[in-house]
Amino acid sequence: MDKVFLITGIFCLALLLRRVGVVREKHLSLLVRYVISLSLPCLTLMTIGTLDLGKAHFDIAVIAWLVMFAGAAISWWTGKLIGLEGSKLRVFILVSTFPNTALLGYPLSYALFGETGLSYAVIYDQMGMFPVFLTLGFFVAGGKESFFHCLKFPPFLALLAALALNVSGIRFSGPFATTISWIGWTTLPLTIFLIGARVRLTSLRDSKPLAVCLSLRMLLIPLLLLIAFQLLGKHGIPYRVTLLETAMPPALTTSIIAMQYRLDEEFAIACISAGSLLCILLFTLGMLIF
Question: CA 200, 212, 279: angle at the middle one, nearest 5?
Fold first, then answer.
């Protein structure tokens, strides 16, 4: 329960500090750069680099691939159905398909399932969602020319390095390992802070496509996965974490690539803001009740 209050407290503090002007966009840009370029890669090295690959649930990654591609197809069809096109349709596909598996998924998985849950969340994010985001996501946003941009993404490079080190049997030790661990753990509170600070209540317009997006992202797609798990008899922490990650609100990175490729960034921010608020609210209420 302490973890729940900590997550909610950090989220509300970020909202307050942004509201009163203590935290500004330039500060958030620096935090985003720190998380993407340093702390998240360190967390990847810390988890994937020390993971027992022989016992890891790599089916989690396969499930994530299937979920992302199915989500993209469903969101494309739904977007067309409600009359979206052009830039708005591209953003709708992005925010409906890709969940916030790292910035929200990591802290919530850790809060609910501890370090074991966090390791499964990292597998889902880094080996499952992430490769699809770097390929399909960038393709949706910017076409085939965008593929080369994704290869320079620091967390992706860290994933390749972590897998190479793991396979070769190289393990960090001593002060260097301790430093990487400390830096990596800063990812969890900072990501919650970033989500809270990025929420813009004034951007909650376009209620119909926003409601449809969140219904797909946080209800329909997780529900379909839950039904599949029930039919296949998949139970236990790995699949509970997988379901939790699948039900996360739209990924914060979708607004970043929407801005990069001059798409409808405001709509992306609206979906991320509403989804993040709803997620934190439901998570807190659920933990308090159950």
Answer: 50
Residue owning tokens 């849950």: 117
For the chain, give every domain's residue range: 2-289
Query: Minimal CA–CA distance to 78: which of 200, 169, 185, 212?
Result: 212
pTM, full prediction: 0.81
- The tens digit of pLDDT for each residue in 8-48 reads 788 888 888 888 888 887 888 888 888 888 888 888 888 77
Please give the single-letter amino acid code of residue 129: M
Amino acid at 10: I
Q: Helix/strand/coil (H, E, C) string of the chain? A: CHHHHHHHHHHHHHHHHHHHCCCCHHHHHHHHHHHHHHHHHHHHHHHCCCCCCCCCCCHHHHHHHHHHHHHHHHHHHHHHHCCCCHHHHHHHHHHHHCECCCCCHHHHHHHHHHHHHHHHHHHHHHHHHHHHHHHHHHHHHHCHHHHHHHCCCHHHHHHHHHHHHHHHCCCCCHHHHHHHHHHHHCHHHHHHHHHHHHCCHHHCCCHHHHHHHHHHHHHHHHHHHHHHHHHHCCCCHHHHHHHHHHCCCECCHHHHHHHHCCCCHHHHHHHHHHHHHHHHHHHHHHHHHC
> What local confidence, expressed as pLDDT, does residue 157 receive?
84
Within 10 angstroms of residue 177's Cβ, the number of other Cβ atoms is 15
Dump pLDDT digits (tens) for 104-119: 888 889 888 988 888 8
Q: CATH assignment of 2-289, given 2.40.160.180, 3.10.20.600, 1.20.1530.20, 3.90.226.10? A: 1.20.1530.20
Q: Token pair 């739209």 is at which residue?
A: 250
